Amino acid sequence: MSIELPAAIAAYFDADGKDGAAIARCFTPDGAVKDEGQFHRGHDAIAGWKAKASSRYNYTSEPVAVRRDGNRLIVTARVTGNFPGSPVDLRYAFTLEGERIALLEIAP
Questions:
Q1: 70 domain residue, yes or no
Q2: What pLDDT digit, counting tens, does each position of 30-53 carry?
Q3: Into how many domains does the chain fold?
Q4: What CATH number is attached to the domain comprising 43?
């Protein structure tokens, strides 16, 4: 399924599971990710978070739906890989600032 996403969000999913530095470049300099109850703020922290997650599991994420919720875009993605419970649909709540991601919250 092809879903039209803003450039920063499309770039995030293109690099997901592969390149922590490329993921970090999708964010504003003080952008943040909330995943599994933890906040990761700034490019270095975001790159480290993604590198750690990518080293633990091999996975792919494919956006399957998108909707607007106020100033956020909620993308549902099917995540498939070598982790317990695979595949799983996760909700990625993106808040954009200009052409970059200011905040990403990931939840089941």
A1: yes
A2: 999 999 999 999 999 999 999 888
A3: 1
A4: 3.10.450.50
